[in-house]
Amino acid sequence: MITIAEQQLSEIREHGIRDYPYECCGLLLGHFEPESKVVTETLPISNAREESAKRNRFLITPEELMKGERYARQHNLEIVGFYHSHPDSPAVPSQYDLEHAWPTYSYIIVSTSADRANDLFSWEQEPDRSRFNQEEIQCQ
Amino acid sequence: MPVTITIPAPLRQFAGGQSQIVVEAKTAGEALDLLTSTHSALRRHLFNDQNALRNFVNVYLNDEDIRHASGPDTPVKDGDTIMIVPSIAGGAVVESEVGESLPELSHEEILRYSRHLIMPEVGMQGQRKLKAASVLMIGTGGLGAPVGMYLAAAGVGRIGIVDFDVVEESNLQRQIIHGTKDLGRRKIESARDRLRDINPHIEIETHESRLTSHNAMQLFRNYDIIVDGTDNFPTRYLVNDACVLSGKPNVYGSIFRFEGQASVFWAEKGACYRCLYPEPPPPGLVPSCAEGGVLGVLPGIVGAIQANETIKIILGAEDLLINRLLLFDAWPMKFREFKLRKDPKCPVCGENATITKLIDYEEFCGVAPHQLPPSDSKLEEITASDLNQRRVRGDKIQIIDVREPHEFEIARMPGTKLIPLGQVVTRMNEIDPEVDTIVHCKGGVRSAKAIEALKRAGFSGRLINLKGGITAWSEDVDPSVAKY
Questions:
Q1: Phi and psi for B31 in degrees, rounded to 5?
Q2: Which residues contact residue B107 at a Cβ distance below 8 angstroms, ignoring those fewer than 6 apart?
Q3: pLDDT tens profile B171-219
Q4: Which helix (H) or strand (E) holds B83?
Q5: How wide is the angle at C-alpha B289 spanned by C-alphas B288 and B291, nearest 5°?
């Protein structure tokens, strides 16, 4: 389960609309708790990226992730997951997403079109990497 | 050497909850092997089934990515720290693989593809992937012919073909998708009929147009893989750039005389065409197949390699021709291979790419629309009919044929002197500057170059290019001269 405030969810949606038709992405910062992940902040990444990188399927480079880690540590937070958008596609993970993920993290996907954000779901990878399971979003 | 490996938060559950683990190792690879042999559940999150580090998993030794050092062989020292950091990928592109299930095969299809189905590398799953796949072929010429025929036969579900040409007699020596009955027909129609005959279970989409900067992105959007079967540099760069910009793999092939090249340019996984050839050759330096000739079977071999790699991409095979340039020479019958490297400074797929949308490729390659020489050279031209009138009138002229001797063997105009293009400057003294000189070749391109070269070498006489070359002569003046 992931716990997140309505404000963070709308930040993710707005980011998705802003970056349409490109994929947007960002980090979910907060805390791991025994039964849930609590998101207290989102850190958008892709709107700072250059044109060339948007075409690259790798949305967040390890350097940026390390930068995010550093930021999180300074603010006493942890990276608990990531979000990205699927422009004109459903908010379900692709095979590609599955191959490029780790368990435990939350992967929020928002489906976007030109003027609005559609479905938004959170996914968590099965520990044996076989599939993604949809994860309950508890909205604060 | 004792080194400390930092375990990222989500993987700690597979490492007994520890955030740091110390191992004794000599290289980064050995350290990871030790880590994952003690904590075996970790391994599948770091390595793929082929035992290679997953491509989104990055290993930093202190602050350096080991991929930039010696990879797994990077030596470690006492007290070093290894960090495992993922890069986060997203991809809505292959949605069909998970979002919807793959299409089912009918009984007829199962029978048809049985030789595929009994191989575990393809199997039912692979054949359904082929059925779900879409491939766009640029050109239905020498390369496009075997590519289209094999992809159709293999059961690729949707094949798009782009061509604007008409089937001509001189195509049939190698473009086996077209037949004698198709002479004069539009190539896309002839190709469509042939592919339908091979496999009625697939969809064929025809696009009768020249591929341009205006329509390329739109066209590429609807296909998973692009196969380049073009014969000219502007289109080749256009295909490359549009593939990079739309994130599609570009299955490349090219042919000339007895030699062929093949590769898979896929920017997110390796080098693109521009990493290999940042700039096009000067116009005219590399002759086209129409000028230099091509062994008819050569595109069959190279095109079959392209079809092979396309099918492997669809099936998710390893060992694609990514970062590899395959060279084939039919005469000594030799294959060679070069390693390619992604150029970090590549203008289209590099880190600071400057090409972010399609450009004017004719201009980039320095060719004007009809391959005429630059206008400032003031090329004087004559049509075949006017030349004939001058001859009939008895004007004092000389005609220089700058083609190759073997072309001279095929067809010649009466009263000409043969000086192949490559010798035209050294044998300049054989041309009389006192009389008008008509220069001709097969189509008018090489003769224009010869005139340029002669002028630059200081030839003082009047030089006139025969427009359309010996081909125009055959069409407009003397049909008994063979066209080739």
A1: -60, -45
A2: none
A3: 999 999 999 999 999 999 999 999 999 999 999 999 999 999 999 999 9
A4: strand B81-86
A5: 70
Residue B309 Cα, gap to closest chain A Cα (Å):
20
Q: Which residues of B are catalytic?
A: 289, 441
**Cis-peptide into A21, omega within 30 deg:** yes
Say yes or no: B285 contacts chain A, CB-CB below 8 A.
no
Average pLDDT over residues A45-67: 63
Report yes or no: A52 and B350 within 8 Å, Cβ to Cβ: yes
Number of alpha carbons in the 13 Å side-chain half-sphere of residue A139? 8
Are residues B10 and A23, on separate chains, in Cβ contact within 8 Å? Answer: no
CB distance from A99 to chain B under 8 Å?
yes
Question: For residue B284, what pLDDT is reported?
Answer: 64
Give the nearest chain A residue to B350 (CA atoms).
A52
Q: Which two tokens stand for residue B224?
A: 């998973």
Is A25 in Cβ contact with B10 (below 8 Å)?
no
**Catalytic residue check, A135:** no
Mean pLDDT of the A72-96 span: 86
ipTM reported for the complex, 2 dp: 0.79
Q: Strand pairing partners for B480?
A: none
SS3 B71: helix
What amino acid is encoded at B216 in this protein?
A: A
Give the span between the Cα atoms of A86 and A20, in whole angstroms: 9
Distance (Å, whole) CA B30 – CA B36:
10
pLDDT tens-place string over residues B219-241: 999 999 999 999 888 999 999 99
A34 CB near a chain B CB, below 8 Å?
no
Give the model's pLDDT for residue B94. Answer: 41
pTM above 0.80, yes or no: no
Report residue B372's pLDDT band, with 50, 70 and 90 as the boundaries.
very low
For residues B396 and B385, the answer to whether their CB atoms sit within 8 Å is no
